[in-house]
Amino acid sequence: MHHRNPPKEPRPPASLRRVPVQERSAERLTRILDACAAVLDEVGYEELTTRAVARRAGVPIGSVYRFFGNKRALTDALAHRNLDAYAERVSARVSGVAHADWRGAVDVAFDEYLEMKRTVPGFGLVDFGVPCAPDAMPDANVQVAERVAALLADHIGGPLDARLRRTVLVGVEAVDAVLQLAFRGRPAGDPDLIEEARTLLHAYFARTLD
Fold it and tell me: 151, 160, 176, 207: most buried, per Cβ within 10 A?
């Protein structure tokens, strides 16, 4: 596939105190983030502590503080990892969609988000940002929209211009609100509201992409 608008290389989050270089250090960071996700699912963000994460990861508390100054920085890094994983998963799946089929590409992005929300540890509470700590990862939806717009432009062979960026951002913001409603108290989500969100995306994107 010819890449007109290649996605930008992911950069380490600003909250990360140091970027792991050695393989052992990188593995420890992965273990810490995995533990953070697991503890989040068990106790929620308010009750999350760096000590509990260290205990779950089987590492000294100093190992957590080597990378993160506090739990907000820790969950911020988890959100960045989620965003990178989401972009990679969408990119892999969208390669099987015809280039002229923008609806199919949008469905891939939509369905992959739902899949991660239902199956990835910690994702239900911290997907691409910490809801109760908006300054932890500012403008999370802006970053999600930028990744999706770049993937969509690359797939359909169109320009990554201001109009597409605006369309995708509005779509992400609108669908985020509907999906929050759909998943309120329902781990798998309300199927009718989920399909309404998909219909909303198709109808709104058609103004720009048809």
Answer: 151
